[in-house]
Each structure stands twice: as C-alpha cells, then as structure tokens.
Amino acid sequence: PEELYQGLIALIKDVLAKGARHEPIEGKEIWAHTDRLVDQMSLMGDELIELANGNRITPDNYLYAHMANVCIISLKIGFRLDYNRSRLNELGVSALLYDIGMVKVMDIAQQPRRLSNEEYEAIKQHPMYGAELLENSRDLTRVVIYVAHEQHERLDGSGYPMKLKDGKINKYSQIVGLVDVYEALTHPRPHRKKFLPHEAIKEILKDKRKFEPLFIKGLIEEIGIYSVGTWVELNTGEVGKVIKLNKALLLQPT
C-alpha cells in the first residue's frame, strides 16, 4: 500500500507541474494508473484508507497528498455504490485531477494565516482554472472537466462558481466535493487545528442539505465514525487503534 500511495503522489506532482507550465495532461497515463489503482483498491482498500487518514500532509506536500487522499476515499464510496469498472475509472480520474486549478493560486493558499476576503475570492477561481487546463489536455472525457469545474457546487445552491443546484451537478462532482470537505477537515490548516474523523462527519452533517444523503451514507459506511487507523479510548480506560470497521455497528469497530 505504501508504494502504491507514493506512486499516486508522484503522479499528481507530475500532473501539477505540467499544469503549472500550461502543458497538456496526457490522459492515457492517468487512465492506466487509475485502472491499476481500482484493482488495488478492491484488494487493499482499508489499508489505503488508513494511509489517507494518516498524518502525511505537510506544507511541502499539502496539495499532492490532499488530491491523493480525495481520490482514494472517492473510490471507496464508488465501490460502496456498486459502480462498475468503467464508472470507477471515470470517478478515479476525475478525483485525481479535480484540484489541478490550485496550481495557479497556491502562493495564496499556502499563506500561514487566515486569508483575507480578497484572497479567498481569488482562491475561488481555481475551479475555472482547472477546467481550462483540462480542456486543453488529451484523452480525457468531458466528465473529468465537469468535476474540476463543479467540485465546490452544493445541492442547496450555496456553492461556487455557478451556484448550481440539485439536478444540475454531476454525481461524480458531488462525491468529490463531499470528500474534499471531509479530507480538508481531517488535516490541519494554517487557521485551525484538524478535526478527528468523527468530528469531521459531525461538521458535514450540520450542513447535510449541501450534499446527497446517499453519498454521505457511503462516506460514513466506508470511512466509519472511527476510521481505520484512529486511536480511541475505550470505556475501560484502555487505548486502542481501530483496525477494522464494523459495517453493522459503526460505533463499535474492531
């Protein structure tokens, strides 16, 4: 799992470097890598989720690890929804490339402080930057571009850049958008500490009208209230590490 995870990071670094140079992304390589990832997810999905939930994000690798984690968790939800191989690959490629537009605003995003309103408005342009970069790439389907453009749209119309509502937002965009929020919450940012996985789920449920209930359910069932790799204190006072989810009783993992 570690080698696969690091390979995913390396691929994302290469893709973002090309994006920063305004070079077209070669879709065939992305599809091939995602196809292998889907194979491995079926065999070691929980181990990859543990890596995604681990404390691996640093100021130097923030965007690479964030995108890798979102890809892995999105695929887990896709498996939960019984997507076929073709849909899993589409979802995986979309989740791998969805945040490519951030390369144009990373100097702002990496500021070690809370952003100003003007800086936040500049950051909100990244979905359009990403869609433009992917438009000029090769061997990518339209849905991949839609996801880059729609990742921050919300079912209640509160998202951006187009304030789309339910029925107009691609399903993959909804999954990736949900996972993007979850992953961001579970890792520290310059202006706040990280949330524990169960705390992140609570935050998402506070605004549950923003997301498709089926996808929230899939996230909870695949990540768990106490996700694999989480350290917990038992009611006996003992401390333990979650090694397996209990899909029937999410509050009682192994």
Key features of this structure:
mainly alpha, two-stranded antiparallel sheet, 11 helices, 254 residues, globular
Question: What would a concise description of this structure say?
Answer:
This protein has helices at residues 2-20, 27-53, 62-80, 85-97, 106-109, 117-123, 126-135, 142-150, 171-185, 197-206, 213-223; strands at 231-233, 239-241.
How would you describe this structure to a colleague?
The radius of gyration is 17 Å and the shape is globular. The model has no long low-confidence stretch (mean pLDDT 88). The chain is 57% helix and 2% strand. Helix 2 crosses helix 4 (85-97), helix 3 (62-80) packs across helix 11 and helix 7 runs antiparallel to helix 8 (142-150). With 254 residues, it is an all-alpha fold. The protein has a two-stranded antiparallel ribbon.
